[in-house]
Amino acid sequence: MFVGYNIGGATTGPAFGPAVGANVITKLMAAALMSIFFFIGAITIGPNVVDTLGAELVTDTAIFTMRSNVAVLFFIGGALFIGNYAGVPASTSMTAVGAIAALGLATGELDFAVLGEIVIWWIVAPIIGFWVAGVVGRYFYPQINAWVAIEGNREGREMITVDRSGFAPQLRFGDDADRREITGALVVVAIGCLMAFSSGTSNIANAIAPIYGTGDVDMIPLILIGSAAVAVGCFTIARRTLDTLGNDITNLPLTAAIVVAVISSGIVIGLSWIGIPASFVVIATMSIIGLGWGRATRTTTLSDARAGEETRVSVGALTAEEEGERSPEIGEEEPADIPQASDLFDPSTTARVVLMQNVVPIISTVGAFLTFRFVPIFGL
Q1: Higher-scoring residue by pLDDT: 321, 352
Q2: pLDDT category of residue 338 using cuts at 50, 70 and 90
Q3: Residues 79-92: pLDDT tens digits?
Q4: Cβ contact 198:88 at 8 Å
Q5: Core vs surface per residue 279-309: b (16+ CB within 10 A) or e
Q6: Spatial distance between the Cα atoms of 289 and 59, rounded to a whole number of angstroms
Q7: pLDDT tens by residue, 22-57
């Protein structure tokens, strides 16, 4: 349950951070949607992942004793809690696989070929997400923004709210939202729901697979308990990660939120298709960072005819935020219209996020290995 609680805290931000940051939905709505779609993914496809997680990564599932599982789950949950408390969503897959791999390494039952394949994709996938989002932010974002003509409703109430005044709750949209903005809002929320579903299919195994491997508890009760614990995390500690991914790293208008969601969910689905446990927390985070970096470093040449000089400057987003305004090409922007890069991309927050996302899995892996190797009580 403690692991599930921290999974909810770690995965809600990447799934719904863009929607919350663009002021499309409230944190409460994000938590509710995350809980629902996580459970759907866990109860439908999740059992397949639970069945295979322990069997492939280790060569002998007999090492999953109730005693060893206490330590495995302790380090998974404890490491994730550190990241959640810091407001940085760490990868549940990396943290869980690290602890299980540490158990396999300490007992000589680790399958290095399987682990190597997983680690390679964990390195490549976030890089792909960063650069794809960076290229989009640097070269294509103004055109995309002009096509969809969506502006994030960052002031006032959220674009989508729930009206509970009547007999049945009803969705309400912002008074100043036009049809395109409503469509875009529904799209980014739908993609967040898809990411929540994907998280349920893989991350439920991180909490219950070691226990299920012992054969002492049935699958369905474990999924119900794990999903309930995830929901608690979504409604509580996830607020920290929603703030980090929705507001602190980069200023996300609704168009940017859609771009981030499409890129990260596409990569996650691709990895899941080939059987790799997707670290969608890291992929989504790096996509947000990449888009913010691309928009902040978009450059233009400003000419001073009298001095005969040209200056390359950062123009940040340089997007046509007002509907109907033509998107500027590189080199067309006026100096007065150039925002500060820090408004769109916060390097200090980015460094904290990247650091913690690497530290949390290391804590889980190293702590579990040292425990299994040197603590006599575990009998390994």
Answers
A1: 352
A2: very low
A3: 888 877 777 767 77
A4: no
A5: bbbbbbbbbbbbbbbbbbbbebebeeeeeee
A6: 38
A7: 777 888 999 999 999 999 999 988 887 787 676 788
What single string gives the DSSP state of each residue in 196-217?
A: HHHHHHHHHHHHHHHHHHTTSS
**Domain encompassing residue 131:** 2-378
Classified as helix, coil or strand, 172 is: strand
> Is the alpha carbon torsion for 320, 325, 327, 328 positive or negative?
negative
Q: Give the Å distances, CA to CA, from 162 to 9, 28, 166, 171.
A: 23, 10, 11, 5
> Which residue in 282, 205, 192 sits closest to 45, CA to CA?
205
Q: Please, which residues have CB within 8 angstroms of residue 163's CB and are 6 or more apart in sequence?
A: 169, 170, 171, 172
pLDDT of 110-124, one tens digit each?
889 888 988 898 889
Q: Model-level pTM?
A: 0.71
Tell me which DSSP letter residue 136 carries.
I
pLDDT above 50 for 9 = yes
Q: Which helix (H) or strand (E) holds 302?
A: strand 299-304
Q: In a 3-state reduction of DSSP, which class is residue 289? A: helix
**Based on the structure, what is the number of domains in the chain?**
1
Compute the distance between CA of residue 256 and CA of residue 377 in angstroms, rounded to an integer: 51
The residues that bridge with 160 in the sheet, in sequence order, are 173
- pLDDT tens-place string over residues 168-213: 666 666 656 667 777 777 877 888 898 898 888 878 888 888 888 7
CA angle 254, 260, 262 (to 5 degrees): 105
Q: pLDDT band at 107, cuts 50/70/90?
A: confident
Placement of tokens 């425990």 in the chain = 371
Where is 311: in which H helix or E strand?
A: strand 309-314
Counting other chains too, the contacts that 160-163 makes at CB distance below 8 Å and 24 or more residues apart are: 160/24, 160/25, 160/29, 160/185, 160/186, 160/189, 161/25, 161/26, 161/29, 162/29
